[in-house]
Amino acid sequence: MAEAYRAGPRASAARELASDAPESRILAYGVGACMVQGLVTAAGDPEKFGGEDAAGQVAGAIVASVFFAPLFLYGVAALLRIVLRAVGGTGGWKATRHVVFWASFAATPVYLLAAVVEAWRGAAGLTAIPPGAAGLAAGAVALWFWCGGLAEAHGFRRAWPGFALAVAVGALLSLGGAV
Predict the structure, then answer these.
(1) Cα(18)–Cα(156) distance, rounded to whole angstroms?
(2) Could you give the dihedral angle defined by the CA atoms of residues 27, 173, 48 and 114, in that order, rounded to the nearest 10 degrees?
(3) How far apart are the first and last CA of the chain?
(4) Per-residue pLDDT tens for 64-81?
(5) CA–CA gap between residue 56 and residue 40 (Å, rounded)
(6) For residue 116, what are the contacts with CB-CB under 8 A and spacing of at least 6?
(7) Nearby residues of 42 by Cβ (< 8 Å), 6 or more positions away
(8) How many Cβ atoms sit within 10 Å of the Cβ of residue 54?
(9) Would you give the DSSP letter of residue 131?
(10) Phi and psi (nearest 5°) for 92?
(11) Are 133 and 58 in contact (CB under 8 A)?
């Protein structure tokens, strides 16, 4: 995982794709990423899990993050493959899935760091860091990993157009939700 940060997302995706990982390892990447995301989400919003059945609510959130979130990643990978193939990509289903799961897994340390920053921000009263800024930065890093890996898997020369398009779509969706 350190190579993903040292060499960059495209180089780490190339190494992962060259390893011809078995499906079990690809699934482990996806489940691991979703589990960390679920735990970070649960830890970051303790008011969400309150009342008499707090333990049951936390258990439900963990089950959802371990079993259902990877299914969501499978769907995202399938849609990305269709879209990327339509615009000239050459990657197959397994390569797309492998890169999506690997990129999600490689971004987990940044999500953990964002959770720590958010906790410190709240506990120390650091008003200079806006709420959610660390999570937004972590999301940008994850998107950077996804775009670099998908560019490698589908034979695109550059990853930045995909990153720029994804940021623009995300900004439009955010503005649409804020209106």
Answers:
(1) 17
(2) 60
(3) 39
(4) 888 899 999 999 999 989
(5) 17
(6) none
(7) 48, 49, 58, 61, 62
(8) 12
(9) T
(10) -90, 180
(11) no
Q: Is 125 left (phi over 0), alpha (psi -120 to 50) or beta?
A: left
CA gap 122, 133 in Å, rounded: 12
Structure tokens belonging to residue 168? 């623009």
pLDDT of res. 5: 87
* pLDDT tens digits for range 97-131: 999 999 999 999 998 888 888 777 766 767 677 77
Lookup: tokens for 167: 């940021």
Q: How confident is the model at residue 179 (pLDDT cuts 50, 70, 90)?
A: very low
The C-alpha atoms of residue 51 and residue 60 are separated, in whole angstroms, by 14
CA-wise closest residue to 120 among 109, 107, 108, 129 = 129
Token output for 147: 């775009």
Which of 46-50, 75-79, 146-150 is predicted least confidently?
46-50
Give the tokens for residue 84: 């990327």
Cα 118 to Cα 130: distance, rounded to the nearest angstrom: 9
Alpha-carbon radius of gyration of the chain? 17
Give the per-residue pLDDT at 176.
66
- Distance (Å, whole) CA 105 – CA 28: 9
pTM: 0.83
The encoded tokens of residue 174 equal 């955010």
